[in-house]
TrEMBL record:
Taxonomy of the source species: Eukaryota, Metazoa, Ecdysozoa, Arthropoda, Chelicerata
Name of the molecule in the record: Putative RNA-directed DNA polymerase from transposon X-element
Domain Reverse transcriptase: 43-221
Pfam families named among the record's database cross-references: RVT_1 (PF00078)
InterPro entries membership: RT_dom
Transmembrane intervals: none
Signal sequence, renumbered to the chain: none
Gene: X-elementORF2_308
Any GO molecular function: RNA-directed DNA polymerase activity
Record keywords, A-Z: Nucleotidyltransferase, RNA-directed DNA polymerase, Transferase
PANTHER family in alphabetical order: REVERSE TRANSCRIPTASES
CDD domains: RT_nLTR_like
Domain of life: Eukaryota
Protein source organism: Araneus ventricosus (Orbweaver spider)
Amino acid sequence: MFELEKALSKSRNMSPGPDRISYHMLRHLSTSSLSNILRLFNRVWTVGIFPMQWQEAIVVPILKPGKEPKEPSNYRPIALTSCFSKTLERLVSARLVHQLEVNNLIPLHQSGFQKGRSTLDNILQLESEIRKAFVWRNYLVSIFIDIEKAYDQTWRYGILRALFEFGFHGQLPLLIYFLSHRVFKVRIGSTLSDPFVQLEGVPQGSVLSVTFLLSIFPEFF
């Protein structure tokens, strides 16, 4: 119960998903109702199958500041998914991150997506190396990589393989199901599109997606 209450307390009051159930509603549930939700989450965790309604998303395109509205690539997709699903994802993500940290599977130089750290740490480290190069009159070579559309194009099998090699065997069926049955609709104003099936990448706006990227980064660096 503590994990569930902690996950709900960390959740921001964002727009609800297709089921229209918000975090505000979940936080005001009674203890007995939260216990029922926890039993449901444990059942999903044990069986390894996500409810189909939790895998549906409504995508709202938001125009990037100062960009031409006629160009589709100038819009940032905001995915609205079930708060039930996002709460369970937060619980699963916390356990995965804990196992990654305990087994020293997160590189020391990885500051993104880390509690108590930020990319500012890497900037300060780079600044320190630049100053050292000036003092010792040495050359310093830096390589910057911009991974475009990381969420949309991440290799799913690569994520699952990395997690398997890290020792996450028992929960792989749940993660496979989570990644393999994603459906979304695009909403512009009050108009909703027909459903699309997401065949590649990881879900936009999911806490688990960040953890997936964190697990696969050591493959590249």
